[in-house]
Amino acid sequence: MFNKNIKLGIAVAIVAWAVYEFSNKHIGNGISLILFAGLFVFLYFKNEFILLAFLKLRKQNFEGANNWLDKIKNPETALVRKQQGYYNYLKGIMVSQSNMNEAEKRFKKAISLGLSMDHDLAMAKLNLSGIAFTKRRKQEAQILLNEAQKLDKRGMLAEQIKMMKDNMKRAQAPNQHFGGHKQQRAGKRR
After folding, report:
1. What is the pLDDT of residues 110-135, one digit of tens each?
2. What is the CATH number of domain 47-169?
3. For the chain, domain boundaries
């Protein structure tokens, strides 16, 4: 809604107002204003649109989450570094079904900016592993998959990691051709 610096400016102004209220012996008003300023400090570190996008994702509403993310016009100025990472992480999830190149860029940028939760980082690396595997970069996919497995301390992604490893094993197995004779093409005569 507001630029990150404007949020801090509003918080400082509210704290100044709270100090004024304390000096006038209005303790209740001062405490209320300090709590209100805390809301703006919280929203400085946790962007409201990203929080609303996460709520939409919990309900599997990808279109609604994307609408909330689209309201952030310039993420570099509106978000702190970690929130820029989450913005790119969520955008990567949104486009991963339709545009793998864009999703790969978003996930790599999210990892470079940083994600605060290990399981979010593991999920980003797992998605990158899947993208690398579909682009036939098997060594990179294996490295990313191992990193995702190390980051997944609670085992929340264990099933997806196991599925990905099984798919990699199947793809590395040689193709089996049954039958020793050559089949003739239809319409070709000897």
Report:
1. 999 988 888 889 889 988 988 888 88
2. 1.25.40.10
3. 1-45, 47-169
